[in-house]
Here is the input.
Amino acid sequence: MDLFLQALSLAITPTAIAAIGLGALVGLIFGSIPGLTFTVALALALPITFSMDPVPAIGLLLGTYIGGMTGGSVSAILLGIPGTPSAAATVLDGHPMTRQGEASIALGTAVIVSVFGGVFSLIVMIVSVDLVSRLAIGFGPAEIFALVLFGMSTICGLCGDSLLKGLIAGILGLMIMTVGIDAIEGVPRMTFGSINMLQGVDLLVAMIGLFAVPFVIEAFSERPEDKPRDARVARVRAELPKIGLLIRNFWLMIRCSVLGTGIGAIPGTGGAIASFLAYDHAKRFSKKPESFGKGNIEGVIAPETANNAVTGGTLIPLLSLGIPGDPATAIVLAGLMIHGITPGPALFMNHATEVYGIYVAVVLAYVWVLGLQLVGIRLFVHVLKIPRDMLAVAVLVLCAIGAYSIRNSAFDIYAMGLIGVLAYVLIANRVPITPIILGMVLGPTLENEFRTAMMLSSGSADIFLTSPTVLVFFALALLVIGMQLKSELKRKKKPQKKIETSDA
Amino acid sequence: MANRRQDIVLGATLVALALIWTWLVVDTIPPGFGDGEIGARAFPMAFGIILLALAALLLVRVSLRSESKAKSDDPTDIELIEPDEIRWIPAILLLAQIALYGFLLEKIGFVLATPIIVLLVMLVNLRVRSLSKLLGMSLGLTIGCWLIFEKVLGIYLANGTWMNVG
Here is the structure.
């Protein structure tokens, strides 16, 4: 108790609170602009922390991380362009809600459930850090491969009306990510001798191309007779979700929080896998699965809860074992070490006050994010009043800034344009593009973990067949695919009224 | 019927892509050494073969789609709903403009390249003729982004190799 009170005295100071708030604001801004992401924000924030005390310094970094994770939903909902890969699943129902004039409800719900997921995962972390870290560290390459394969099976739930076209899209995403230098052997793959192609296609560049460029093409090619008379989007009210909505979906929020925390605790997985798995889970167990993709609030609640629950989950291996799960937590790890806090089993003995201070900082970061977003909703929704063609010009410039800033390379801008035009053609042919993103997010991990597992087992498949965890995930993947095939066959036998959905 | 035609073109294109991809993978990427080392070629090749199979299945399904179904007057049948029109000219035009933007960012930097591209896009794509709108958007976006990103957030925008402002 004394330690906790000491931690409170370190974390609840004007400097610490201001640092966390600044981090949350910067993270929100970076997370909401496609291509920038909170990893860039963290890299920029790290040097600022050098002269600060440990708790405010780590608070600034955690605030940036948490703000960024939440910020991705803003552009996902308003524009249909995810700010971060973790928000790609939020586009599916968040943007249709905007088109139905419910942008502020979607944004408000997203931020509230994000805070819920984040605080839930923090509580799980506090009470079970030891147990969860031991379970998570038991995940070897075979187990991670099986988990990612299970994640890939959720493509089936993202295919809209054509399972076949959705699978084709997923394979295209997997293929794109093989271009470049092979991570294990270092051989160039499909680079055609080009130095630029050696670096491969960056995920963020592809994401911007897939979502933003079709939006810009459609806005620029809209004829006056195509513009809807009933411009519901222009009638925007800053309205927050009712408490009843949250209570009705409370059990879904709990389930997605558990999912996100568990996935976050496994190094190398991340928010994107958690959000897609949560979306698929919500759709599968929903009373109205056919309404997903058309503006169902559950399609916003599930991914946003899960991807923020990842934040607490990633702190588990980070603090208990010193293992960062992704580049963002690697920067947080660097921040910890610079301030003399060495993560690992001894952390809780040697720096207990600072650890409790970190817990308080996470809570404060979520309070800041909640406040900033709820106030910001009133401003964000006014973005929708901007004429679409002018907004598209601004989006074009912002996306070019985002794409260029990743590697300071014009090649990324060329790649963004080309991928975007291809995405526009695919969308016109009713090929969903969300599975492409899923393939791109999961592809490198899928391949690298499989190859590592095979090398460890000297080519024997026993490494997959003798692990209960692997078999469980394989079975779940087969179950998901089987259920999707069954419902696809049922749908084909019985003609039903279908409403077209658009991915852009 | 446009739906069926478009699906045939899509399927054929994907089959061709898969064949070319698989051939290039086999031709340019060395195989693994065995004993668990499956090599850099395995996954790209597998993806190419899977794409070939799926694209071929798409072609077969489209070809087998019965004439009676094509003549159906059920307006809600998904396979009969007209695909979106592909507006090729705006798409290719935008691709060219994005490529030009990338080129100009490298050569003359963000502050000079951005107003040029914004003006180009507004004049050609959107056919805006109002001087106030043109100047407002081009200068406003450039200065606004430069101030926010470079000065406030500390993100270095592109510097040109030929010349640079800001």
